[in-house]
Amino acid sequence: PRIIGKQGSMVSMIKKEADCNIIIGQNGLVWIFGKPANELLAIQTIRKIEHESHLSGLTDKMKEFLEKESKKIR
To answer: Which residues of 32-66 are buried (b: 16+ CB within 10 A; e: fewer)?
Structure first.
């Protein structure tokens, strides 16, 4: 649920900033399609969400992380 976010806001942000398609199955599987560098950014972000899901302000932290990291690959 933390990867999806409220009404899909978190996954939409990841898709936009990482410039790749993401499908999250009801069984918990995640498919990521894009350029290898973009896929890696999406994976790093999802792992960061897993590790920091208990913290408040997670969406803002992830937005900041994605903006910073996506500049490196563009």
So the answer is: bebeeebbbbbeebbebbeeeeeeeebeeebeebb
Q: Taking a C-beta distance cutoff of 8 angstroms, is the pair 18, 30 a contact?
A: no
Query: Residue 1: how many CB atoms within 10 A of its CB?
Result: 8
pLDDT higher than 90, residue 63:
yes
Secondary structure class of 57 (helix, strand, coil): coil
- Cβ-in-10-Å burial (0-12, 13-18, 19+) of 25 comes to exposed
8 Å CB contact between 16 and 63: no
Q: Which two tokens stand for residue 23?
A: 């499908």
Q: Per residue in 7-31, pLDDT tens? A: 999 999 999 999 999 999 999 899 9
Whether 74 shows a pLDDT value over 80: the answer reads no
